[in-house]
Specification:
mainly alpha
């Protein structure tokens, strides 16, 4: 892999890390837009398998053969740069976005609304044509369910270790499921502020419990999602499209404290400008990624094209 592509993966990881800290924006969405989504899912599946084989084979004296084979199958040339970018991206977002969301909530949501709306183009185009009736139904049902869930009033759970563990297991699904925001789930159950505070204050006890929940969630969810993409790819992508569309409700700039949607009010011009900016940024990313893939496919075709005999 060229140095430029590795740097690109670091930047992609930074964007995913930032998204993970933003309520309403999914890290899986950014992974999908930037073209690393499927390699991320496949690699996570191999890592989960490696852990499972280690736990079952090593105590029985069967060695590391199967676990090592699974680890070698992971796309480490993608995973390592992504992780290098994700950690500082998450830390930076936790530090900078918290005051922005508190002081300029309408403007911030307007920007994110544009980002996520443009992201819908990616899974919709990946489904292919023509759309079947069941895929349209899957999109509508997923959109309606997500729209309803994102309108639920905020609860307040005590940050008990068991609760943190369970919520983290569900929240990590956002890393692998476009349209599902783990930060928004934390906000809904009242654990967003304690989690952001733990990141900023380096509360390693809280963070260790949260990380353990993430590992459990990944182990349970990644293999299911990988199976769905392998066996029911079009329907899975259609449902992902619906999740993204439904999640737009949480990003509508004008909302009351109990998340009731309101008509556009003050600041409509700057908020609209930020919305258009967010839309344009993601659209440019999508176009650039498609050009890169087309260029790579063209180079691969030329490299393996048989020499014509004159």
């Amino acid at each position: 892999m060229a140095l430029g592509e590795r740097v690109g993966h670091v930047l992609r990881g930074g964007a995913i890390g930032v998204a993970e800290a933003v309520p309403g924006v999914s890290g899986g969405t950014i992974a999908l837009v930037t073209g690393v989504y499927e390699r991320l899912i496949v690699s996570a599946g191999h890592v989960v398998n490696a852990v499972r084989y280690t736990a079952s084979d090593v105590p029985r004296g069967r060695g590391w053969t199967r676990a090592g084979h699974q680890l070698r199958q992971a796309h480490w040339d993608v995973l390592i740069p992504l992780m290098i970018g994700m950690v500082p991206g998450l830390l930076l977002a936790a530090k900078l976005l918290e005051p922005l969301l508190a002081e300029y909530p309408e403007h911030t949501r307007g920007l994110f609304l544009g980002l996520v709306l443009a992201s819908v183009l990616v899974p919709v185009s990946m489904v292919g044509k023509p759309w079947r009736i069941k895929e349209v139904v899957g999109l509508v049902v997923a959109a309606a369910a997500t729209f309803t869930l994102t309108g639920l009033p905020q609860a307040a759970l005590e940050p008990h270790p068991l609760i943190v563990l369970i919520v983290a297991a569900f929240a990590v699904c956002a890393l692998v499921m476009p349209g599902v925001s783990g930060s928004f789930l934390l906000l809904t159950v009242g654990l967003y502020e304690p989690t952001i505070a733990a990141v900023n204050d380096r509360d390693f006890g809280y963070l260790a419990i949260f990380a353990a929940g993430m590992v459990i969630g990944l182990a349970l969810f990644v293999k299911l999602l990988q199976w769905l993409l392998d066996r029911h790819r079009r329907m899975t992508l259609a449902v992902m499209s619906g999740l993204l569309i439904g999640s737009l409700r949480s990003l509508w700039p004008w909302q009351s404290d109990d998340r009731a949607l309101q008509a556009p009010g003050d600041g409509i011009l700057p908020i609209t400008a930020l919305f258009l900016l967010g839309f344009a940024v993601v659209l440019a990313m999508v176009i650039a990624e498609r050009r890169r893939l087309n260029r790579a496919a063209r180079m691969l075709t030329e490299a393996y094209e048989p020499t014509q005999v004159r």
